[in-house]
Amino acid sequence: MGHPIGQFLTRPPHAPLPVRDAPASGRTRGRRILITGAAGGVGRATAVQLAAEGANVALADVRVDAVEAAAAAIAGEAFAVHMDLAEPASIAAAINAAEAKLGPLDGLVNCAAIVIHADPLETSWADWEKIFRVNLFGAYETSRLVARSMIASGSRGAIVSVASEAGKKGHVESLAYSASKAALINMTRVLSAALAPHDINVNCVCPGGVASDMLREVAVAYGKLAGKAPEDVFPQLVSSQLVRHIEPVEVARTISFLLSDDAIIIRGQAVSADGGDTPY
Description:
Blueprint: E1 4-5, E2 8-9, E3 32-36, H1 41-52, E4 56-61, H2 64-72, E5 78-82, H3 88-102, E6 107-110, H4 125-153, E7 158-162, H5 166-169, H6 175-195, E8 201-207, H7 213-226, H8 230-233, H9 248-259, E9 270-273
Parallel strand pairs: 3-4, 3-6, 4-5, 6-7, 7-8, 8-9
Antiparallel strand pairs: 1-2
Helix pairs in contact: 1-9, 3-4, 4-6
């Protein structure tokens, strides 16, 4: 690809790179894993990926019908639980339901998140609270309760949170969301150190332009700000190196790796999974 100087490219972009097929590895076989935000996008793709590897998965989401449909479509040991990440009692109940069905958990994927787009000087206090309640507080409470269960059962588990490249670079029109993801990255680092004595590994991934409902919402919001149609904006929200959108399954494969023993020396990291756009 060309080398950008601002928005100027010294070389023309190359053709989009293909999505590569990858057979299920089996590296999470037999694991018992809870996935939040599992009704669609990266969460659903992760549930499908892990189930194909032989893991037993509990799909959690606030959207009851959608998460039940997602679980029903997965072959293998998969079932749905209702979880509202803005309510601590709902989080605890969902974890209890998952463990009643699967047994003690040894894996957690924090994938649920919300985003609200606004002028950076007009983001309301209520929106800040709403975003942090789900994206950070809910992820922490879920991690805390699952970690305590892992410690009690002696499980050598792993926790993977889905942050965002926005947590590293920040986006002007989604200040509160970017800040929540930056906080999630920091939480990952601290929890990794805190849980290391219990042999529980903690990391997060930072996706970029994933072809998902959230990115389509971004296209709508950016389109309004720029006076453009969403269908004109969405095709531009792509990886500069891949020259295409990232597919949810590609992020799911990274999550699977970080959950596995293959990633035991990767600890407390925020792994960029954005097609090369973030330089660190």
